[in-house]
């Protein structure tokens, strides 16, 4: 990676009421204290309990983390290469939601790139999810040109996560969100009235934000919605890091 900046907890796009779009060309990459691991941060707020982060994580070949736990849980979407931990080797398209209390020692022999959301899934009763978006079936979306796969929805928790596949030349007009909505562009180009967002872009639309999305090329996008409050950041008071665990910083 070109950057030699060292990652430190900080605030990045922390105002949840602000419409945000981060292009891959503007993403700043940071070295970490872990061997062969780089962070490209979309969203971070170290002033909120347990420091929620949304980011890309790049593993150099042979890169690895020490054993660590996950207060507040984590989401992982493997974009390139093979991500591995004690549960197996996970190829591109693998989506995982690991609930609060999950521990592992991730590594990648060949290198990989992952989209990650940390400390935004408090609650030990959450289901653990593992699926692959390239091997699962699609359902009809809100119009025939859009298909979707539901990745996570659970009674008692407010978040909903899915992926959408847009055919070329698909357009929606005057969409108004009732909850917070995040989008990560997995493939293709996502567009709205303010710009075009290629593969690797991350966007956040706050409630009551009106926009008109489209895709001339077709695209595959990760989508997450949740209400505007801080409950997504709350970590159970009984969470304990296991012995010999290095907390994720």
UniProtKB/TrEMBL annotation:
It holds the Pfam family Cupin_7. This is Anti-sigma factor. One of its GO terms (molecular function) is manganese ion binding. Residues 22-120, 128-228 form the ChrR-like cupin domain.
């Amino acid at each position: 990676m070109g950057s030699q900046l060292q990652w430190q907890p900080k605030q990045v796009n922390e105002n949840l009421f602000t419409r945000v779009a981060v292009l891959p060309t503007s993403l700043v990459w940071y070295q970490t204290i872990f061997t062969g691991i780089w962070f490209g941060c979309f969203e971070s707020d170290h002033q909120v309990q347990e420091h929620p982060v949304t980011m890309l994580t790049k593993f150099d070949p042979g890169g690895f983390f020490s054993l660590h736990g996950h207060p507040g849980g984590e989401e992982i979407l493997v974009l390139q290469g093979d991500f591995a931990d004690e549960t197996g080797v996970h190829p591109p398209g693998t989506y995982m939601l690991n609930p609060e209390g999950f521990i592992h020692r991730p590594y990648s022999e060949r290198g990989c790139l992952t989209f990650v959301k940390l400390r935004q899934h408090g609650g030990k009763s959450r289901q653990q999810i593992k699926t692959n978006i390239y091997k699962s079936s699609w359902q009809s979306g809100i119009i025939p040109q859009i298909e979707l796969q539901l990745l996570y929805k659970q009674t008692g928790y407010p978040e909903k996560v899915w992926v959408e596949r847009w055919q070329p030349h698909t357009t929606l007009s005057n969409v108004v969100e009732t909850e917070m909505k995040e989008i990560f562009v997995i493939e293709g180009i996502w567009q709205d009235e303010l710009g075009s967002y290629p593969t690797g872009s991350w966007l956040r639309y706050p409630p009551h934000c009106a926009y008109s999305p489209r895709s001339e090329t077709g695209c595959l996008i990760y989508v997450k919605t949740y209400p505007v409050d801080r409950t997504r950041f709350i970590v159970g008071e009984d969470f304990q890091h296991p012995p010999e665990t290095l907390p994720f910083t």
